[in-house]
Amino acid sequence: MFRLLILFFVILVSASAYAEEKGTFSLVAENDIFHSDRYYTNGIRASWLSAPNGGSSLARKAARLFPLFPEEFTVRTSYAVGQNMYTPKSITQEDPPEGDRPYAGWLYGSVGLIAEDGKRLDQLELSIGTVGPSSLAEPTQKAVHRLIGSDNPQGWDGQLKDEPGFILMYQRNWRSLITNGAFGFPMDVTPHMGGAFGNIFTYANTGFMVRYGQQPDLDYGPPRIQPSMPGSGFFVPENRFRWYVFAGADGRAVARNIFIDGNTFRDSASADREPFVMDVQFGVVASWREYRLGYTQVMRSREFEEQGSRYQSFGAVSFSMQM
User: Fold this and answer.
1) Is the pLDDT of residue 20 over 60?
2) Fewer CB within 10 A of the terminal residue: the chain, N end or C end?
3) Fold of the domain built from segment(s) 2-322
4) Cα torsion at 258, 261, 266, 267 (round to 10°)?
5) From its phi and psi, is residue 289 left (phi > 0), alpha (psi between -120 and 50) or beta?
6) Higher pLDDT, 193 or 228
7) CB crowding 287-319: b at 16 or more within 10 Å, else e
8) Which residue in 234, 235, 230, 232 sits closest to 214, CA to CA?
9) How does residue 5 score in pLDDT terms, banded at 50, 70 and 90?
């Protein structure tokens, strides 16, 4: 993971050389630290989003050819690296019971295009990486647990096997229903829809977000880690402090989730996947000049049949800065 982060920052510096304006660096961390250490237990993602019409000329030409982007738009290119990890209900058992979620990790890099025309935001992203021991999820979790004095995970010997993976994702957000709310602050509703295809995730999704506060129309919500309600590193800085609160929901019809279904071409641990998953979230975003900080609380419905609770709750912290 450390080597990939070094490579990411090399790409970041190279990408910024193309930009006449500032790009945006974002760091997102998701964790169930306030609840039990199980299921989707941790995710981290570092990304770089170029300035408007920044990035390589090849990327800009590709954006103009993509048929689902709007006719007139500014394009940004994005680069990211990240790691997700998943565990069963109890990490102190060497052999989790049959039907429980298997141990799994996902280490990946992403490249994407973002098109924005003032009324909507379109995102296209390709992620390539690996699941299995090569994802480094096992040593990462064990090192963190030693550092904080938590239980040592016992069942990583049964994790998913090494498998290269990819996800091609497309999402669209609309700005709509902007009106004045209580105390004179504006409120807006941003519906979204999209989907993903690959041996890691395949799903179709739709949902909405309601936001209230000081100029929520200057971004499309804080960035998140896939699969999730879509946000973006994109935001317009201002020379004064601003804030907004938000709440929303996202529903996914899931045809493939390798972290539950198991390896694609090899025998591995698996569970019986639920075909429909719902995320409900709420949170707050604050920004000042080139900096934006967001916190999101997420409640995700049951993802597999033997899951012990009706939903899982976890938090997501995001920090973005233009540089």
Assistant:
1) no
2) C
3) Lipocalin (2.40.128)
4) 140
5) left
6) 193
7) beeeebbbebebebbbbbeebeeeebebbbebe
8) 235
9) very low
**Residue appearing with tokens 């900096």:** 291
Q: Which residues contact 83 (CB under 8 A, 6 or more apart)?
A: 1, 43, 44, 45, 105, 106, 107, 108, 135, 136, 137, 140
The band of 29, judged by pLDDT with boundaries at 50, 70 and 90, is very high
| Contact criterion met (CB below 8 Å) for 188 and 165 | no
Task: Give the three-state DSSP class for 101.
Answer: coil
Phi, psi of 141 (to 5 degrees): -65, -45
Place of tokens 């295809």: 197
- Assess contact for 297 and 283: CB atoms under 8 A: yes
Provide the percentage of residues in the chain whose pLDDT is more than 90. 63
- Report DSSP state, residue 219: B
Q: What phi and psi values does residue 69 have, to the nearest 5 degrees?
A: -75, 155
The per-residue pLDDT for range 161-211, each reduced to its tens digit, is: 999 999 999 999 998 777 776 777 888 899 999 999 999 999 999 999 999
Q: Encode pLDDT of 241-261 as tens digits.
A: 999 999 999 999 999 999 999
- Tokens found for residue 194: 């999209």
- Terminal-to-terminal C-alpha distance of the chain: 23
